[in-house]
Amino acid sequence: MDSSARSGATGSSNPRAWIVAGVAVAGVIVLAEVARRRRRWLRGKSSPPPYSGAFCDRLELAPPPQPPPPAARQQLPDLTFAVSDNFEIEGYVAGFGNPDWKRTHKAASHTAAAVKALLKQGATCVGRTVMDELGFGVTGENLHCGTPINPASPSVVPGGSCSGSAVAVSAQLVEFALGTDTTGDLRIPASFCGVLCFRPSHGVVSTLGTLPNSHSLDTIGWLARDPHILSRVGDALLPAAACGLKGKRQLVFADDCFELLKIPNQKTVDVIENAVRTLPYGFQPPKHINIGQYISSNVPSLKEFCEPSTKLQEGKSALKALCTVMLLLQRI
């Protein structure tokens, strides 16, 4: 056998040659798959799913006509809004984010009180939005209805539980949206989707006609892109606005809480005070308090949860008390 034949036989039986060839073929396959997935992603980006997956029910509840003078003008004319899937609407079944719940429950005989109040002020409800199943979740993902696409960052979750409401507002499908906030269910998706959110104190807005997650914590709130619209919705829903009550405009700094930050307390205060000076409404000079002392003086029922300040770093005692109370309320 000549030398060329011997070298060919040696090369064909060399395992290193086969490894190099295998790696090369694998690399070609991987590059082809990456290119295919990128083309598919670009096609999907050019034609996003309708409504960004925000809605689970499309409907239209038109407001009553503007009453003639001397009746007051409606506060929310020509504005559209959506509500989470735990708001009851007459003639429809609230799914609560779960198809089994929707299948085993009857259509509502009444519309939620908050929805009625908004309709009365001229707003139009255009649908119910996706939420975490039964309101348990902070990611906004729903196995049954699908996860709404976060318009602010499509590669990340929208946050929950009221994910659909935040996505509908962020995607400019509605001017504002309602949801219930138990332990961040509105605030979390608002921050994820880049919209504004307002959660009033517990019990201020009637929860009549909403499916509860926790009676002692559920609070109706709303989301909007425009702070002016956020304020107008508050004027329609908050009883203090209807009564014409006006409190003084003043920022209160809980100094003992700010001391827990890694940055100097005064630097934070200066930044906030400078921002306040740019607001169009006049604010009184800021007030500084110790929240631990405030709780002990004004909320006697929480005294037993506060430990002496000598045992804990100043400020942490009050925060620990509030956290303990919240955990106990969740168990109710």
Automatic annotation (TrEMBL):
Record's keyword terms, sorted: Membrane, Transmembrane, Transmembrane helix
Annotated SUPFAM superfamilies: Amidase signature (AS) enzymes (SSF75304)
Biased composition (Pro residues): 62-71
Amidase domain sequence ranges: 79-226
Short name of any one Pfam family annotated for the protein: Amidase
Region (Disordered): 46-74
Protein name, as recorded: Amidase domain-containing protein
Coiled coil start-end: none
Gene3D superfamilies in the record: Amidase signature (AS) domain (3.90.1300.10)
Transmembrane segments: 17-35
